[in-house]
Write a structure and sequence with these properties.
This protein is of the alpha+beta class and 134 residues long. It is built from 3 helices and 9 strands. The chain has a single domain (5-133), classed as 2,3-Dihydroxybiphenyl 1,2-Dioxygenase, domain 1 (Roll). The N and C termini lie close together (12 Å).
Length: 134
C-alpha cells in the first residue's frame, strides 16, 4: 500500500540557520520558506535526488512543532512521510486494521498541496507517520 518515501521532516528551532546549513555546508538545493498557518509551521524543502527533507519551524506558540521543541530543544526528526495512491482507501484500510488516524480522520492539504493524514506513533513503533496522496 505505501509507496516511496516522500520526505523526512525535521523540527528545527531556527529555520534560517538550518536552511543555511543544508544549502551552504551540505551543498543542497533549499527552497524559500513557506508559512503554513493552518498547520502552524513554516517549512523549507531540501531537494535531494531520491527524496526531500522538510525542515519545520513553529509558526506561533500553539504550533505542534513548538510543543515538540519544548521537549527537544535542539530539534530532531519529527515524522516520515510515505506516498499512497488513494488516501481515503489507505485511511479506511488502516483504520479497519486498528491504526489510529490523528485529528478527525479527514485528510487535510499538506505542505506540498496534496491531501495528507497522520498516523499515531504508538501504532508505528514510536514514529509519527504522514501519508500523502501521490
Amino acid at each position: 500500500m505505501i509507496g516511496k518515501l516522500n520526505h523526512v521532516a525535521i523540527a528545527v528551532p531556527d529555520l534560517e540557520r538550518a536552511a543555511t546549513t543544508y544549502r551552504e555546508i551540505l551543498g543542497a538545493q533549499v527552497s524559500e520558506p513557506h508559512p503554513l498557518p493552518e498547520q502552524g509551521v513554516t517549512v523549507v524543502f531540501v531537494e535531494l535526488s531520491n527524496t526531500r527533507v522538510e525542515l519545520l519551524e513553529p509558526l506561533g506558540e500553539a504550533s505542534p512543532i513548538a510543543r515538540y521543541l519544548e521537549r527537544n530543544p535542539e530539534g530532531g526528526i519529527h515524522h516520515v512521510c510515505y506516498e499512497v495512491e488513494d488516501i481515503i482507501a489507505a485511511r479506511d484500510r488502516l483504520a479497519a486494521a486498528g491504526m489510529r488516524i490523528l485529528g478527525n480522520g479527514e485528510p487535510k492539504i499538506g505542505a506540498h498541496g496534496k491531501p495528507v493524514l497522520f498516523l499515531h506513533p504508538k501504532d508505528l513503533f514510536g514514529t509519527l507517520v504522514e501519508l500523502e496522496e501521490a
